[in-house]
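Hello Y.,

Per our agreement to keep a running log of every chain we model this quarter, I'm adding this entry. I've kept the format consistent with earlier entries: sequence first, then predicted structure.
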Amino acid sequence: MNVRRSILIVDDHQSIRDPLATFMRRYDFDVDTACDGVAMRQLLKERSYDLVILDVMLPGEDGLSLCGFVTEHIGTPVILLTAMTDQADRVAGLEIGADDYVLKPFDPRELVARVRSVLRRGARRRADDAALAAQAAPAADATAEKRYRFEGWSFDLTTRELQDPQLSPVPLTTAEFHLLRALLENPNRVLSRQQLMDLTQREGDAFFDRSIDTQISRLRKKLESDPRQPRMLKTVRGDGYLLAARNITLAP
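Predicted structure for the entry above:
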């Protein structure tokens, strides 16, 4: 039996919000709507959603701020609706945590396709998490754990646990786990976006443009004391990214 996926649409224009909700219900989505950030936050307190469709230009708290809140505190995937045509503005939306963006005006059929794509990626990540957990249980008994140590950090490949220099655990998504592993396996080396996609992509994954930028931004927030001036996870303009770390070791 198919489970109806729950969607929250946040847009201050009723002429967009209500017709879109009606359209998406035809595709068997369970849809709620909100007109601003206050209403959105209240609904998020009352129930959980599989995905949020969020307009950037909202009265009061804007969509980028709300997207950052959802990404940091709830973890629900977000698709931004934006009339911004500047590429830098759209990338800023992805870097703050959005999973995709759709430019206004849009074809609602395209939005449904984007929603389904984001939900599929989330389902694959959850399946990967379960598979890795199942593999880790017997591996812990049979072999010694492998652990990277770098700049005071500790990264366990078996349990997927990242610890900061104060030994506090730092949670990682599946995508962040694969990205950090790829960077640690190629330290102090510039890796292009395409190289990072090749190193982290698993069969069946579908990456949209700038997805690596988004994951780098999220990982940087966890590794860096000041993500705006990164010391380890650096951008090499026009070329890609590198992990600048000394004395990287891999040992039991």
